[in-house]
């Protein structure tokens, strides 16, 4: 379950922000998670609960925004949705594409007081 190590790194960033902005309580944490990251939302939510316990993040709302995986064909410049099994350009039928979105894994915003 790599979600625990992912959340450990996210909490390092959260802790840095808490100190920088002198927050006494965190009320909301928003994450952006790309479809291609293989991150399980339920495992990430479990890890969030575990890491937030007995901290200023406890009882904060966790919002996970999924980012659709898209690619751009390097041949015809068509932008299209992809998944693990299909990266074929629907316009020119070539496999010469680069991923544009879907690999994100980041802390998008943090709210507190």
From TrEMBL:
Sequence similarity: Belongs to the HypA/HybF family.
GO molecular function, one term: nickel cation binding
GO biological process: protein maturation
Binding residues annotated for Ni(2+), in chain numbering: 2
Keyword check for Heme: no
Sequence positions that bind Zn(2+): 73, 76, 89, 92
A matching Pfam family: HypA
Protein name, entry field: Hydrogenase maturation factor HypA
Role summary: Involved in the maturation of [NiFe] hydrogenases. Required for nickel insertion into the metal center of the hydrogenase.
Organism: Orenia metallireducens
HAMAP family linked to this entry: HypA_HybF
